[in-house]
Design a protein that fits this description.
By secondary structure, the protein is of the alpha/beta class. Helices cover 42% and strands 18% of the residues. The chain has 5 helices and 7 strands. The chain has a 5-stranded mixed sheet with strand order 5-4-3-6-7, with helices on both faces. The protein has a two-stranded antiparallel sheet with strand order 1-2.
Length: 173
């Protein structure tokens, strides 16, 4: 009798785990997350002055990278994103670096280490903006990839790796 109960409990546990994984996969599929209302009207102050307007990037493949000056993995991945931008801009890609930080540290950082990416000062509101794009934990770095039709194709919490960037190109080509 005990063995039968163990087998039954194991089968139920396995079924529950499979159902949970399936539900999580279904819920977290990137294309299933709609863009928040007013997404394309969002504007960020630029460190050098002026505004970074998301509507200017509509209709093109777009990478939004949320970062901060106090986040070592964020700083580590910036050169990778700059290279991706340089190599893919001819194919219409743009990488936007949205700083979830106070303006002064961002400006000081950029004086020491200029970025070859458009930078927007998202500030602490950037955390909520990131959450609206699927960053439920509010962690950094966080990256969202949009296809030219505006669908979310990828989300990544944590530092990026080269194979992920190559997968974006293949998925959106």
């Amino acid at each position: 009798m005990k063995r039968r109960n163990l087998v039954l409990a194991g089968a139920v546990g396995t079924a529950a785990a499979v159902a949970g994984i399936g539900a999580a996969w279904w819920r977290l599929r990137p294309e299933e997350l709609p863009l928040p209302p007013g997404f394309w009207q969002t504007r960020f102050e630029k460190p050098e002055g002026g505004e970074l307007v998301l509507a200017n990037y509509r209709g093109k493949p777009l990478v939004l990278n949320f970062w901060a000056t106090w986040c070592p993995p964020c700083i580590t991945e910036l050169p990778l994103l700059e290279r991706f931008q340089r190599e893919q801009q001819g194919r219409g890609w743009t990488v936007l670096a949205l700083a979830v930080d106070s303006p002064t540290p961002v400006r000081e950082f950029l004086l020491k280490r200029p970025l070859a990416l458009p930078v927007g000062l998202a500030g602490l509101d950037g955390i909520e903006f990131g959450r609206s794009l699927g960053n439920t934990q509010g962690g950094l770095p966080f990256t969202v990839v949009l296809a030219s039709d505006g669908t979310v194709r990828s989300r990544k919490l944590g530092a990026l790796k080269e194979p992920e960037l190559q997968a974006w190109i293949a998925a959106i080509a």
